[in-house]
Design brief:
With 186 residues, this protein is α+β, with helices and mostly antiparallel strands. The protein has helices at 52-55, 62-65, 104-112, 133-139, 150-153, 161-169, 174-178, and strands at 11-15, 28-35, 38-43, 47-51, 68-71, 75-85, 98-101, 119-130, 143-147. Strands 1, 2, 3, 4, 5, 6, 7, 8 and 9 form a 9-stranded mixed β-sheet that branches.
Length: 186
């Protein structure tokens, strides 16, 4: 009997220590979409030095143009995606109150609106997996799973998110979290 498909949408993938030398070394990836045809995710740990307005030629509100741009993954690095959160998003498509979007018009509308609880993060590129590829990587234990939360997605310290989550997961992950970047210097 074939394994029953289980979507990982709304989960965080953490490098389990097996991805050294790859784009995903010490990364945290939010799985935004996952079905039998493949998966789409955004790397939460790669802020760039660029602001959205530096790389996106579009009529966007200044507030959005000043936001830091994140590198969402190695696939189609010219493609725009954004995560938007608010206190109440009835049609959220990632986790409750968190929505994934790709439309410049929708992004502009978000910038024009006012909500004291609104959060927004823009990404260039994404992480993508073909049918069965992510499941294969999970079987090889390339990734650790952790449930996503709004607080985690919009952390103010994205470069240290991988280590922070590992330490939260418990003592058995401390050695991995505290390992030096370059194992030869250990």
């Amino acid at each position: 009997m074939a394994d029953q498909f289980e979507s990982l949408r709304g989960q965080l993938l953490l490098d389990s220590g097996q991805l050294r030398g790859s784009f995903f070394h010490r990364s945290v990836v939010l799985i935004c979409h996952h079905d039998g045809e493949g998966a789409f995710g955004l790397v939460l740990t790669n802020p760039t030095e660029n602001k959205v307005g530096d790389v996106l030629v579009a009529d966007l509100p200044d507030l959005i143009k000043q936001d830091k741009l994140f590198l969402g993954g190695p696939v189609q690095t010219t493609a725009l995606s954004f995560l938007h959160s608010d206190a109440y998003l009835p049609d959220a498509n990632v986790i409750p109150n968190l929505n994934l979007g790709h439309s410049l018009d929708d992004l502009a509308d978000l910038g024009e609106g006012f909500s004291p609880t609104k959060q927004l993060r823009c990404f260039a590129g994404y992480a993508g997996w073909s049918a069965g590829q992510l499941e294969s990587e999970m079987k090889r234990k390339a990734w650790l799973l952790h449930p996503a939360s709004i607080e985690t997605v919009f952390t103010t310290d994205p470069r240290n998110l991988w280590k922070k989550i590992l330490l939260e997961k418990g003592w058995e992950y401390r050695l991995l979290a505290d390992a030096p970047e370059d194992l030869s210097s250990n």
